[in-house]
Structure formats: structure tokens, C-alpha cells
């Protein structure tokens, strides 16, 4: 675990009044990703719209994903919430359902102190036996896990990884330095920084773009591990065509529409208030898919 390309899957919804979970589409997406060689499936991340899914739906979706993956690859389940109490409740339930790893985002909306953050993560870790992956995404939470906090949390046996989506290569390098000599693994959470992160010592990446251009991401990982830096650099650059189009809408609506138009799975819309792309944006998406020959 904690290596290779892990896909934070989009959560498929029906185009009905309830924007209900589409389990069949999830199965199609998961099968496609595993067939393409991803190293893990990650439901209920940022691209999975965890922030607009209620807890009953979260556990229903988690159960369905774990059952369908059926141990083919590890399943990383996002269980973070604003309160320690709710995070512990979700983490325990995900553990009972058979998750392999728990991904715990920092609390958001509020800004806990460093000591409060250490207490939060310590309490969550003590409540379960599963490995825990810390999730750092300061552009969304306004909290950046400091080196001091990470040093303290790395002392806890089942805190075994951190995903850094800061986009700051110096921040990532700091985490990798702290991880040396510990059980902690560092995963890249910014798709544009995967190769740079690998060169610093990151062991894998949680890459939203792998929902669509899976072969490029898996190929980048394989090329680097095989020592083919030139190919890895080329594949890293190939991601930029998709990233330029993702900016045309609110996360993750463009990615979901791309997955649909590529014929991978009918993942449906993002939940409101996020709107579906208009016809002009659809044409931009189709041009991007043509670039990748999808």
C-alpha cells in the first residue's frame, strides 16, 4: 500500500431529483481503473464530493465499493469531518465495512491550533486499528499540516502516510524529510507535481486525473520505477492538456463530464450547487478527449 497510482474516484450520481448514488456506474468505473493498472481505489475524496454526501450515503457507497473491489486493490476511504466525534464515527464504520486505509482530511471551515490538530488525529488513530493517511489540502481547508505536527503524528504506529495536495514542492520535500526513518509514506496529491515528488522520495500519487487518463498516470509511475526518466517526463507533461480543461468548471464537474463523454462510465452530474457544463464547454472537453485519442 501507499505506492503507485491511487485513483480518488468520482462518485457517480443519477440525473434524478435526488441526485442519487449510481452504483452500477461506480462498478463500471472501478473495473475500468483496475483493468488499467491502478494501485488503489479511493472513494469519498475531494473529487468524490464527500462534502455533499450525507453519512448514510457515505457508508452505503463505501460498502458497495469495498464489496465490488473485492480485494483486487486496497481501498482508501475518506472519513474526515470537521469534528473529532464525527470523524471517529465514520472511521469506525469504514473499518467495520472492510476498508484497507482511512484517509482523514484536516478539519475544515474552522482552523484548529497545532495542538488541537495533534489531539484530533491522535484520537482518531486510537479509535481504529487501520492505517491512517493524513490529507493535507490547505487551499480548501486553510490549514497546512506543519512539520512540527507531522513529526508528532509520525510517532503514532497506525498513522502511516500523508497525502500532500498543497502544490508546494518545498512543503512536500519537508514532509519527505520528516518521513525518513519512520513508517510514514508521502503521497503526491497535486497531479502536476507527481514526477517531482517521486524524485524527492514520494512513494505514490493520489491523482484525480487518473479517473480519465489512467494509462498516462500508470505509465508515468511505471516509467519512473523502471528508470526511464525521459518517458516519465513526457507523460508528466501529457497531463497538462486535461488539467487546462478542468479549470472550465467547479470541481469535479468537468472531470465527471469527461469520464462520461469518454464512454468509461455514466457518472452523472456533480451535486448542486455545481452546474453541468454548457454545450460550448462540452465541445472543449471533446477536443481534449480527441487529443488523448479517447
UniProtKB/TrEMBL annotation:
Residue runs in coiled coils: none
UniProt keyword Lyase, yes or no: yes
Pfam hit, one: DHDPS
Superkingdom: Bacteria
The entry's keywords: Lyase, Schiff base
Alphabetized InterPro entries for the sequence: Aldolase_TIM, DapA-like, Schiff_base-form_aldolases_AS
Sequence similarity: Belongs to the DapA family.
Name used for this protein in its record: Dihydrodipicolinate synthase
Organism whose genome encodes this protein: Candidatus Enterococcus ferrettii
